[in-house]
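Notes taken during the Thursday session

The instructor put the following on the board and asked us to keep it in front of us for the whole hour. The protein is Rod binding protein. We were told not to look anything up and to reason only from what is written here. First, the residues (104 in total):
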Amino acid sequence: MQATLFQPTSQPSAFTLQPPQAEPPEDLSTREAFDGFVAGTLFREMLKSMRTSMGETPYFGNGQANKIFRERLDGELADQLAATSGKSLTQDLYEAFGNQTGLK
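Then, after some discussion, the predicted structure tokens were revealed:
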């Protein structure tokens, strides 16, 4: 639950409720956001499947810290893969998305 702030208006005795100002969203184009989401999701799932098929390695142990490190590493790899080759994978999907929503 967010607290509301009282802000004075032009009249000194009157107060109005004003919601707190939200942080402005990052300035990403629709295409970049689409590519990041679709390709990022694809690569994350691909890396997750690859990790489960390999089994555990005896070199680094099977602790919680290792699992967190692998998840973070896979997330970074997925982001890099999406940034470098995401457009080639999502071109047809983006065109279909644009046709349905009226974006070009």
